[in-house]
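Consider the following assembly input.
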Amino acid sequence: MHIPDGFLDPKVWGTASGVSAGFTAYALYAVKEKLNEKVIPLLGITAAFIFAAQMLNFPVAGGTSGHFLGAMLACTLLGPLQGFLVMVIVLLVQCLFFADGGLTALGANVFNMGIVGGLFSYMIFIYIKALIARISGEKRALLISAAICSWLSVVIASAVCAVELALSGTIPLSVALPAMVSVHALIGIGEAAITTVVLAVVTQARPDLVHAMKLRLPAGQEV
Amino acid sequence: MEIKSFIRENKSILIFLIAAVAVSIVLATFVSPFASSSPDGLEKVAEDKGFGKKAEEKEPAWRNSPVPDYVVGGEKNEDKKWATGLAGFIGVLITIAVTLMVCLIVRGIRAFSREKSPVE
């Protein structure tokens, strides 16, 4: 759902750019003490994997394709702010080197896929995981809640994208919202499948590398 | 000697990282040429609802992408599998490079600001 140039008007992409720039600056500031020799390679490889996986469009109904987003995967593997920064980097590379997503829309794309699809969805994930962990094991709770929230992340991000299109006067919300959400409800199934499989593999191989394995409530606190 | 002991001490994580890089390169290089070329969710909605032309009419704000649309060599290679695969391979390397660069810059700024402040 990379928005190209021309879909958003200046007030929408300007606002989104400002908000996204603020979040990016804060995230860089907040993680700077944590960027050690162990973490940096993990950030690099997660970004590379998400870039690669985003190239793999899979067909969904009616001549439409979808591709992996990866924001929830990045956040569960690395922690929310690190995951958000990885998404910023992937979107920046796609925009500048591959003309995927417009430069004026980069802030909106970061907002939709990094802030809404990443940080916001991860906040929901924290609570859902804690809830599921009451009735099942830690690992199963992680995988189930990641599946739910990665599906949700794609759907909410597409809804926000529809709102931005409507605010820009590109298309009425009553048309954009059902169209975007229904397509992305299907694409989200692919998202949930990929996120869950990758998390299952990594928690099996190296559970110590999965940030969300160490996650405990109260929410928002580093553990 | 130092490198040898480093590898020995971090063997498990190194194997994990190498495997992960290998998977990413294989996906981007050898699988991506066979991905669906149908429009994605947003593109399809734009087509169906008639606002797709808004993007086509508009000059892109950034026209210097070396590999537009993940095809090396531009539109003439659109149907060539190798052009997409090569774009994916390059993309994985660029993504890793940019991530490392951002991390090193942040660390550089951190070290610089520590040096200036008297507090440890």
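The helical segments of chain B are 2-9, 11-31, 41-48, 53-57, 81-116. Ask yourself how this observation constrains the way the partners meet.
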